[in-house]
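Quarterly update, task 2.4: fe (ii) ion-bound model.
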Amino acid sequence: MDLTRRDFLLGGGAAFGGIVATSALPAFADNPALFPQRGRWERLSIGYQHIDAGAEKPFSILHISDTHLTAAYSHESEWTRKFMERRSKTFGGRQEEALRDSLAWAKQHVDFIVHTGDMIDAQSEANFDLVRKYYGEGDAAMGGCLGNHEFYHGQGKQNEAGKDVTRAKVAAAFPFDNALSSTVVNGVNFVTLDNVYNTVTAAQATRFEAEVKKGLSIILCMHCPIDTPRIRRAANKYWKRDNLKSVWDANGWKEPRREPVTRDFVAYLKAQPLLKGILAGHYHIDVADRFSPTANEFLVGGNFLFHGQEITIT
Ligand SMILES: [Fe+2]
């Protein structure tokens, strides 16, 4: 019988009854014959970028995004278990390994790590436990922000009221101020914020202005990018949307940007000379473009595909 790991974990091997000899376990490890050089140079696909932020001394960070963990415990709801099973196939089933490899790489090669959201694909007890485990593990000082999938549980509106339903649960798992948080490293202020439905609130905009008043260079980290023509073109190509009036518009993904608070916030960012860079994810592609006279914007590919981005900062 050809027993896959998933069959085994889901108890699909009914023929085995309630207990299985460890000798019957499928091989969980790689088949080294398939990719014998994996790990010889690198286990991740790392891009290399730079931000000139006037730092007190040079340092580097690993930027990752969109891990899309799909774990569920056997006692969780049928919807949760079925959803995670289906989505494991979408994302390859090796997302936790990708995250572990990223953390190990960061610990060895850079000073800090930032995750720009969608660490989980949907809410589950098992996923939230993984969030606690990996945000709390090691001394690589992982920071981050939320993604839209952090709020996903199969229903509810994609707006602030929809977030309210599970906001406390999310906040209990992610160990930072989810609305906006600031970490100063060598005189550079990393501001992370929740813009997971392409919008910011008036309270977030006010808090960001308070960060600007600190007078330090800012690197803004958030899940959803602010589209530039080049980023939009790459996203449309990857997602197989062949013109600029894409499904994003049809689905209202772009519409909120015309919402006045967010529109004004974007205009404020564009004119803000202390803004030196933007880090984002969401589109699962590695692309960079000029955002403003002082800031470039960097998107990183999906961590579920073992992508990461080292950014040196001077
Ligand atoms: Fe994502």
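Highlight for this quarter: The first helix runs from residue 5 to 9.
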